[in-house]
Amino acid sequence: MKYLCLLYVPEDGPAPGSPDWAETVAANVATVRTLTEAGVLVDTAPLQPARSATTVRVRDGETLLTDGPFAELKEQLGGYYLLDCADLDEALRWAAVIPAARFGSVEVRPLIPMEGRP
Fold this sequence. Notes:
26% of the residues lie in helices and 36% in strands. By secondary structure, it is α+β, with helices and mostly antiparallel strands. It has one domain (2-110): Dimeric alpha+beta barrel (Alpha-Beta Plaits, 2-Layer Sandwich), CATH 3.30.70.1060. The strands form 2 sheets. It has a 4-stranded antiparallel beta sheet. It is flat, with a radius of gyration of 16 Å.
């Protein structure tokens, strides 16, 4: 079963190039190594800041574009880890290892299996 771990981090988190940023990057590199060695990591990536987002809505056949994220929050979606685990309990144990859990939060959501997809 695959689980998407959505990383929510403070919008005013460590700035790129700062010592705190370097520490966060190093922690994530170590986590990627651990999850890869355990055979549960499918994919992971950080996201650009929320201000770089464009929200798309289609209403009555008209496409509406809005600069910025869907909602204004103190925490922003900062990245994700996609894990392949035996069950939710295993996914939650691995989510607790993700560095963002220490200063933000990690939302764990099971993917719906789709026929014909790995």
